[in-house]
Amino acid sequence: MDVLVCVKRVPGTGSSITLTEDGRGVDTRHLGFTIGPHEECAVEEAVRIVADHGGTATVLTVGPPEADEQLRYALSMGADRAVRVDCGVADPDPQQAAAAITRALPLIIGTSGEHGTQSADDHGSGFDLVLFGNESADAGHYQVGIRVAHELGLPIVSGVKGIDVADGRVRLHRPVPDGLEVYEAPLPAVAAVKEGLNLPRYPSMRGRLRASRAQIQSIPVDVPVGGLRTRRLRLPEQGTTETVVLGHGPDAAPAVADLIEELL
Amino acid sequence: VTVLAVLEHGLPADSAASLEPARALARRLDTPLIAAVDPGARAPEAVGQALADLVAELGPAAVVAPATDRSTDVMAHLAAVAGLPLATNCTAVYPPTPVDHGRTALPGGGEGRSGHDQQGGAAWVVTRIRAGGVLLEEAELDAPTALLTLAPGATVPSTVDHATPVRHAELPDLDGLDVHELEIAPGTERVRLVERATAATGVTLATAPVVVSGGRGVGSAENFAVLEEVADLLGGAVGCSRVATNNGWRPHRDQVGQTGTKVSPDLYIAAGISGATQHWAGCMGSKTILAINTDPEAPMVTRAHYAVVGDAVEVLRAVADEIRSRRPR
Question: Taking CB atoms and an 8 Å cutoff, what residues of chain A touch B317?
Fold first, then answer.
């Protein structure tokens, strides 16, 4: 099993968001960066699948050189190799991001050769399973994985919180508002996963050390013009809330009970 | 030219609510509204393909769907098959205006525009939700057919500067609508739905009138017992923050937040939760928020309607006792 996981470098926003003066982006000068929770679970799942079935876990991002930091985090969790795709666009739209990924796949070193269980002629990716986060934590377009799957001609299920691989097929569990749906698809396949799929590990010291020394393959690609262009960002209007302090400690219980009686 | 509204099987409330802005859009463009019904119980991929066939046949000006998980998925498949951009989670939609119609009121008091972008093609302008709702984006959507998913309460502002109000929770009147039931052609499904289990009904996190949520300040899995107790007394559900799930204190299905469940109860009790944007995105729709926290400066406290400063577990224990003491035995 060769598994590819696609991740995105996003600002870790903490408790508040500040915008740049021109309103075109988030002011990231004082922020750390991270991969989203969905994607962290995707990396964890890839590492677990490889531990169970053998093969390799490759992590890929589309982004600037700074995104190597997020690739190294995934490597420290146990991914085997990392690829950064540079499409020369600061904030690619979903069509551009999907094109960048699709165009980079044939250029990833060592996929369909010694490791791949299928040749690149059989399908477009050289991987048996491709994982995405269901949506990015910042832009939230909910579509890059689906676009990539269609470009590669592979089946995809989104909103996945359970993956079983067996006998060249994959079963994908998708919670829905009134229950659960289970889908089945032949491999190679694509899944867009959600947090809750697993509990991601904290990288070990050994993993961090290995990650810091790992080579990251950089792949430049050209992408077409996309159809969705950000003009500006803004914070939603929020009526300033005057917080009413009901009290301190357990002594506040009667005031809380009064509030509950009033509201319910 | 038409506007195509994608409706979900059985018309759940979100889907029904998206029909009103779809009608407003059709009125605004002076075109008929046509509805396509997702049969459900099939893979979104196959439904998206069937929808793409219908779109190729009709050539609509816009395709609109509710921003539910299901319809978002179907629309993304349509977008991928048709090679069109897709704007998800829109809260406001501004169709391209013919040049003669002059200025268009833009969000945030922006200046009007001619309706044509630099490339000379007419572009749509949308306001869409990012980062789970804590950030809004104004974007241009440049496409022969605009693909849009609409967040609850989305509006299609008219050329004059006032929004078309959205009527909620009314079953849409499908009379007079040209309704297409999407049919899945045999052999188009690469992904097969092999099992469908319906969960037991009862109080769920997403629909509970009261949610009692705990975070880091609760301190342990065992300490959630008092949250369970208060939730039981109030007929509510227990929720938690991402810290609580990452610590293994609660299962992920209890998580309220951007990557968990979004809730909008009458009362949200945030116990020992600091209020990172990840969590705020999941509970910001609550009618009343009560924060219990040792830190009076925690973002959750400063954004809450009511607050108690103190240890979450101690306070909730006292609250449970107080509620019980007020009830007839």
Answer: 250
Query: Distance between CA A31 and CA A19 in Å, rounded?
Result: 12
Residue B103 pLDDT > 60:
no
**Nearest CB to A93; choose among B85, B306, B323:** B85
φ/ψ (deg, to 5) at B146: -85, 120
Q: How confident is the model at residue A29 (pLDDT cuts 50, 70, 90)?
A: confident
Q: What is the pLDDT of residues B214-235, one digit of tens each?
A: 999 999 999 999 999 999 999 9
Q: How far is CA B143 from CA A232, B40, B98, B242, in A?
A: 19, 28, 16, 38
**Looking at the complex, does the CB of residue A213 fall below 8 Å from at least one CB of chain B?**
no
* pLDDT tens-place string over residues B31-70: 999 999 999 888 999 999 999 999 999 999 999 999 999 9
CA of B131 to nearest chain A CA: how many angstroms apart?
A: 5
Q: Is the dihedral of CA A82, A27, A39, A5 positive or negative?
A: negative
Nearest to A143 among B86, B275, B299 (CB): B86
**Confidence check on the interface: ipTM exceeds 0.95, yes or no:** no
Chain B contact set for A181 (CB, 8 A) = 193, 195-196
